[in-house]
Amino acid sequence: MSEEATTPSARQVELLEAAYAYALTHGLADLSLRPLAAAIGSSPRVLIFLFGSKDGLVRALLARARADELALLDRFGPAGRKESIGLVRAVEEVWAWLAAPEHRPLLRLWAEAYARSLVEPDGAWGGFARRTVDDWLDALAGCQPPAERDGEQGTTRRTLALAVLRGALLDLLATDDEARVTAAVRQQLTHFGGC
Amino acid sequence: MSEEATTPSARQVELLEAAYAYALTHGLADLSLRPLAAAIGSSPRVLIFLFGSKDGLVRALLARARADELALLDRFGPAGRKESIGLVRAVEEVWAWLAAPEHRPLLRLWAEAYARSLVEPDGAWGGFARRTVDDWLDALAGCQPPAERDGEQGTTRRTLALAVLRGALLDLLATDDEARVTAAVRQQLTHFGGC
DNA sequence: GAGCTACTGAAACAGTCGTGTCAGTGGGCG
DNA sequence: CGCCCACTGACACGACTGTTTCAGTAGCTC
Fold first, then answer.
1. In this structure, is residue B8 part of a structural domain?
2. Does B144 map to a domain?
């Protein structure tokens, strides 16, 4: 049914991983087959052969990035967990991950893909932003106690939590001022629980 | 001193305005001179002549977009105002503007430029994200009462306000779910003032 | 009228893009 | 051995890209 339902071959995942590392430092916007192939020790011919087309490669790269994202989310909000940790602790822990300098490249790539998918909803980028919002809202919902999770107020609270995380991340990526931005997130957490 | 300190000619601002309208609907990422020129009734030759290069044109377009942004900010936080309206009201009013459907294209363009300037800080896009964060923080500072404005807590509060606005905007652009996102912003406002 | 400035059209330049063609390689398995 | 299959190199195709060259044209001032 899908155009690429076949299990990826060993060589395919090897090249995808190399291309992913390349994309993390060079960005996806002006990604070009020839420079990429030269950098990862391959050739445009092979990339086209393995991924079908450049669009296919980009789709694979976006899926790869999303896998990293989902792996992060799984650490905090495994939907079927016994006891939920609550939104406050979830935001706290997620922010620690987002603010870590070693994750900057991935988050820049994420921002790039997100923005691009807003401008042109069709093609390889299509739906990335939408998908990522749903991923995160679901994960945050998994962190809320059941009583809070359902109902309008629960939706509102996790939407707000996501907004704070995303907005703070944008600020951090632009200014690199971790002290100021982290202080803002902390400020939110103190007001978020009580009241 | 600057490479383009000359006052823009009438024809230049006319074409810039047309190109700006084009960029608002088509995005900046894969902007190309020939299709753009054809759409606005000009020619690649003329665009190069008037703006020096494609980079010059992109820079002019980004400056044009920033002008729109600064015009918005001026409406809320004119730095030398007699009485400050406070962060809560500022966020409230700014959000009303951001959530208006007719501003969607501008905000998509903004997100695109922001993300791109994160990935490649050099070139025409360079520094856009950084500049825009400073613009907004300054504007929000202008809305805070003087006693709150200075000091660490004031900085933290306006950083948080900006993060909520930006994060909510990202959500809105991706999901178009104005009711949910606006509810989240409102929720924040009730907690923001009191406590 | 001459001369200057601002703008414009047509065509071509060198380069890069994604992709297709054709001919192989090497290894596992019958 | 021979066959197949995943993979690969060299190369060319056509369609773009930003930019340049050359040759203007309108309008203004002197």
1. yes
2. yes
Q: Are B173 and B68 in contact (CB under 8 A)?
A: no
- Look up the domain containing B184 and give its range: 3-189
Instruction: Tally the residues of chain A.
Output: 195
Find, in chain A, the residue whose alpha carbon is nearest to that of B181: A159
B61 is a domain residue: yes
Q: In terms of residues, how long is chain B? A: 195
Q: What is the dihedral of CA A140, A142, A147, A151, to 10 degrees?
A: 60
Q: Answer whether residue B49 shows pLDDT above 70.
A: yes
A29 vs B192: CB contact, 8 Å cut-off? no
pLDDT at B70: 94
Chain B residues in contact with A111 (beta carbon < 8 A): 114-115, 118-119
**CATH number of the structural domain spanning residue A89:** 1.10.357.10
Q: What average pLDDT does range A142-150 have in this prediction?
A: 91
User: What digits encode the pLDDT tens for the residues A28-67?
Assistant: 999 999 999 999 999 999 999 999 999 999 999 999 999 9
Q: How confident is the model at residue A5 (pLDDT cuts 50, 70, 90)?
A: low
Give the long-range contacts of residues A145-153, CB within 8 A, separation 24 or more.
A145/A84, A145/A86, A146/A84, A148/A87, A149/A84, A152/B183
Q: Does any domain span residue B54? A: yes
Residue A81 has pLDDT above 70, yes or no: no
| Number of domains present in the structure of chain A | 1
Are B76 and B94 in contact by the 8 Å Cβ rule? The answer is: yes
pLDDT score at A76 = 77
**Angle, CA B90 vertex, CA B87 and CA B95 arms, to 5°:** 125
Q: How many CA atoms within 13 Å lie on the side-chain side of A128?
A: 28
Partner A contacted by B129 (CB < 8 A): yes
Over the stretch B90-149, which tens digit does the pLDDT of each residue have? 999 999 999 999 999 999 999 999 999 999 998 899 899 999 999 999 999 999 999 999
Residues of A in contact with B117 (CB under 8 A): 174
Nearest to A114 by CA among B181, B140, B170: B170
Q: CA at A142, C1' at D19: how many angstroms apart? A: 55
